[in-house]
Amino acid sequence: MDPIIATFIEENIVPNFNYWIYVILMMIGLYAMITKNNLIKKLIGMAIFQTAIILFYVSVGVKDTANIPIISHHGSEHHQMTDLSSETDSTKEIHNTIDKDKYANPLPHVLMLTAIVVGVSTLGLALAISQKIYKSFGTLEEDEILNKLRPGGHD
Amino acid sequence: MIWQFDIIILIFLVIAAIISLRLKDLLGASMVFGIYSFLICLLWAEMGAVDVAFTEAAVGAGVSTVIMIATVFSTKRRSKD
Amino acid sequence: MKIFGLIAVLVVGALLLSATSDFPDWRDKDSPANKSPVSSFYIEKTEKLTKVPNMVTAVLADYRGYDTMFETVVIFIAGIGIIAVLRNFDGPNSSSIKRENNDEGGGLLARFTCSLILPFIQIFALYVVAHGHHSPGGGFQGGVMLGASYILAALAFGLSKAKDIFSERRTMIFAAVGIFIYVGWGVLCLLFGKEFLNYEALDSILPGDAKMARSHSMLIVEIGVAFTVTAIMFSMYSNLSTRGRLSKGL
């Protein structure tokens, strides 16, 4: 392959590939919410949009050499410390300062936990409303519902 | 963070999202939506967000799929587009 | 009509794609989000100040306790909203808790398997709630698992049997008790002299010093969240699958 094209791909496409897929997922969800006629398909589009945004936020907190955000004390050193010194303020750990680069950023995780739960609440309520619409109009397609609502049909 | 794993899961994610919106049978669309939730849970677990992955596995691939299937059974099962 | 939607989506997509060239590098540890003083404070000082190794649970239940309290209220409102939308209160056949004995559930194989596996699911859900300080987990995850175990019982044995265990009145009492525990714990901190949801004020009634008081209070608050989430998940399923009549399950 042409070396210019190869370096172009390496420098511009591979690092940004993740971000492009997130934008494509968001646009698939938005397109479904606008153009689909069936109400359940619109709700599936809304859920895809929500999870794509949450995916983007969580990817902000990823570091290169980072582990999960739970601090772990190695077992053997802990037992050694409690044998030698038995007082209550055992805050003198083996590793006094925690290396900030070894743990993932916990703040996006916390905010997105709330977002996921609010998303499922919204989905449950929207499904209940769509059941009520089916009971009173007999159909779940948007154009048929609009035809029945216009003057000339019953409201 | 293994980048090959990342790219494969992301491509499957886009394919699952497109298929779930094109199926005319609403029961199948709900099941493919469950597959989409589960793939996103795998992606987050690989990125290091274990709490978020746990919640999405329980809520997205569990309760959310069940209530969508419950609604599809109460209303119509075929959709026109 | 569809053309307009396609044009709008393409324009927004092109704008967002051109903005991705300004994003920080992928997995960079010096991006502005990772270098901010708030995140550095959470990573370095949480273990020292609260003695809880899981940073996400500590931030969720202690540093951002207000957000979690209102998130629980949002779930509660969603559960009540589904009842209000679907339930038919004034009609000729509006007695909702009518028991019909003609649903057997899933069949012999499903009944046998679920009766073997349900106790383990519930014990694991309680473990996830209680062990949220040291491993991934916490109030939400355990509560959703416990609610899902009742949904499984309703699918396998029929909805009327599951409602013998977890009737409608008991569900709503559970949901209200969960929020009452959370807000009541905050008011208890007020009564002891400090601000709302400042757990260090409860040093005198909880064992250990002020740091362990924060760790114990986080556990109580997560139990409150688990109560509410369990009850509302089961109530959402039982209302949605029977269109509000609660007569015969899926």
Walk me through the structure:
The complex is a heterotrimer of chains A (about 160), B (about 80) and C (about 250). In chain A, about 65% of the residues lie in helices and about 0% in strands. With about 160 residues, chain A is mainly alpha-helical. Chain A has one domain: Helix Hairpins (Orthogonal Bundle), CATH 1.10.287.3510. Chain A is flat and about 75 Å long. Chain A starts with a helix and ends in a 6-residue tail after the last helix. Mean pLDDT of chain A is about 80; it is low at about 75-95. Chain B is mostly helical and about 80 residues long. Chain B has helices at about 5-20, 25-45, 50-75. The longest helix of chain B is centred in the C-terminal third of the chain and has 25 residues, at about 50-75. The relative contact order of chain B is 0.16. With about 250 residues, chain C is mostly helical. Chain C has one domain (about 55-90, about 95-240). Chain C contains 9 helices and no strands. Chain C has helices at about 1-20, 35-50, 55-65, 65-85, 110-130, 140-155, 160-165, 170-190, 210-240. In chain C, α6 (about 140-155) packs across α7 and α6 runs parallel beside α9 (about 210-240). The longest helix of chain C has about 30 residues, at about 210-240. Chain C is globular, with a radius of gyration of 23 Å. In chain C, about 40% of the residues are buried. The model of chain C has no long low-confidence stretch (mean pLDDT about 85).
Summarize this structure briefly.
The complex is a heterotrimer of chains A (155), B (81) and C (250). Chain A is mainly alpha-helical and 155 residues long.
Q: Whole-Å distance between the termini of chain A? A: 65 Å
Overall tally of domains of chain A: 1
In the CATH hierarchy, the third-tier topology of chain A is known as Helix Hairpins
Q: Give the topology string of chain B: H per helix, E per strand.
A: HHH
Contiguous runs where pLDDT drops below 50 for at least 5 residues of chain B? none
Question: What is the CATH architecture assignment of chain A?
Answer: Orthogonal Bundle
Q: Tell me about the biggest sheet of chain B?
A: none
Task: Give the CA-based shape of chain A.
Answer: flat
Give the number of helices of chain A. Answer: 6
Residue fraction in strands of chain A: under 5%
Q: Level of helix content of chain B?
A: over 70%
Number of strands of chain A: 0
Shape of chain B: flat
Main pleated-sheet profile of chain A? none
Helix and strand sequence of chain A: HHHHHH
Quaternary state of the chains: heterotrimer
Q: SS-based structural class of chain B?
A: mainly alpha
Q: Low-confidence runs of chain A (pLDDT<50, min 5 residues)?
A: 75-94
